[in-house]
Amino acid sequence: MSAAKKKVSDDITKDMPIGKVVMEHPETVDIFMNHGLHCVGCAAAHFENIAQGCEAHGIDADILISDLNKVVKKKK
Question: What CATH code is carried by the domain that includes residue 23?
Fold first, then answer.
């Protein structure tokens, strides 16, 4: 498949580390906080992915991912 036909997604996904998402998209901090994922600044955010954080805090990962992507796309 050629590079032109290959779609590269820059969407945020559940397997991305929380810290990386926050560093690359600081506008997502409020979204994480509003969903109850307050560990955006803790040490775990550097190695824990979004799915793991959601599971640990009882948060619906699909809704969080949707909201994160909405705020990132607004910035573009």
Answer: 1.10.3910.10
Predicted local distance difference test score (pLDDT) of residue 4 = 42
Does residue 56 sit within a domain?
A: yes
pTM tops 0.85? no
Neighbour count for residue 41 (Cβ, 10 Å): 12
The answer to whether the beta carbons of residues 37 and 61 sit under 8 Å apart is no
Is 66 inside any structural domain? yes
| Helical packing angle, 61-75 and 50-57, nearest 10° | 130
The candidate with the shortest Cα–Cα distance to 14, out of 68, 61, 56, 66, is 61
